[in-house]
Structure formats: C-alpha cells, structure tokens
C-alpha cells in the first residue's frame, strides 16, 4: 500500500463519475495528524500541554508519511491486509449493485460496470488513504493517553483543527473514554488558535 493524494470520494453512474466534496481524501489530513504525534513524542515527560507553533510545521512526503505510520501503527502489515480486503469488498459490492439494478437497461448496466472498472484504482487509493488515516487517529489517541496530555493548542489552518475534531469521536470511543472538547480563540495580535481540551482528572 503506497500513499498519495487521489481526490474526493467518487460517485460512479452509468453516465460518468462525480466527486463527493463532502468526503475528501483522507490523505489531506495525514500530515497534520503525524505532525501532532511527532510533537507529542518529542516532549519531555513532565510536559502535559502541547503547543503546535509556526516553527514546528513540517511538510512530509509520501515516503516519510509511510515511515511514520509504521512507527506509530502497531500492526502495519495487518493494515495492508485490511486495505486489500476492504477494497475488494467495496468494488465487488459496486459490481453486484450495478448488475442487479432494476432501474437500468442492459446498455446502462454495461456502461456503469465499465465506469466502475475504470475507477478501480482510484477506489483502491482512496481506501488506502482512509485506512491509514483511521490508524493515525487511533495511534494519536493512544499517544495522548500514554503521555497524559491535558490539551493541544494549534494554529488555525493546515488541517490541525479538522484532525483534532475527528479525534474527539475516537477519544470518546477509546478505553478509557475522554470527554474531549474543542475551543477557538484569538491572541493579542488577532491570530486565530484552537485548543483540544482532554478534560481529564488532574494528575
């Protein structure tokens, strides 16, 4: 499984392909997620607040993203197997749905099946990125728990807020669960910031 940007989720019809912009490619969020993990990993043991500053910004290429995922994900080989299985199931379901669609003529079914075939590699990449991001969120949740992180402050932009907003649900489902909350504010210069509060009991 190689990681690279592919685009929003495809909606394939017998007339062609549309892209659902409400379901962006998870690759867009991987860099920010791994930046936060690296910031947590590099802190001292007595630090429980993380501050993502401008000088902490890093732009990782695909190879570095993969290396960091191997570092933080417990079972990267299992992740590869899950990717293959999920991709095959998704494509098989689309093929079956096209063949059994009672609202399409045979010519329309053939056109839809052909469009699904054309988009197979796109689906494969989209799912690979999605699984990698899910892994990153779980790993980030574990790092926060293991390092007893109280809060993470970040500059608005570069997808930090979106990643941490996605993380809130993961934290709620984790063991132990966390009732994490997000807040936004501006500093004296008018710069916009956000903060993820873990709302944990004080150590």
Can you give a write-up of this model?
With 203 residues, this protein is α+β, with helices and mostly antiparallel strands. The chain has one domain (9-197). 51% of the residues lie in helices and 15% in strands. It is built from 6 helices and 6 strands; from the N terminus they run ββαβααααβαββ. It has helices spanning 27-41, 62-72, 76-99, 106-118, 120-146, 160-172, and strands spanning 9-13, 16-20, 49-52, 151-155, 181-186, 192-197. The strands form 2 sheets. A 4-stranded mixed β-sheet has the order 3-4-6-5, covered by helices on one side. A two-stranded antiparallel sheet has the order 1-2. Strand 1 (9-13) and strand 2 form a beta hairpin. Helix 1 (27-41) crosses helix 6 (160-172) and helix 3 runs antiparallel to helix 4 (106-118). It is elongated and about 65 Å long. 23% of the residues are buried. The mean pLDDT is 92.
Assembly state (oligomeric): single chain
List the strand order in the largest sheet.
3-4-6-5
Total strands: the figure is 6
The Cα radius of gyration reads 20 Å
Number of helices: 6
Mean pLDDT across the residues is 92
- Overall 3D form: elongated
β-strand percent reads 15-25%
- In N-to-C order, the SSE pattern is EEHEHHHHEHEE
Distance between the termini: 41 Å
Runs with pLDDT <50, length 5+?
none
Helix content: 40-55%
Counted up, domains total 1
Structural class: alpha+beta
Largest sheet report: 4 strands, mixed
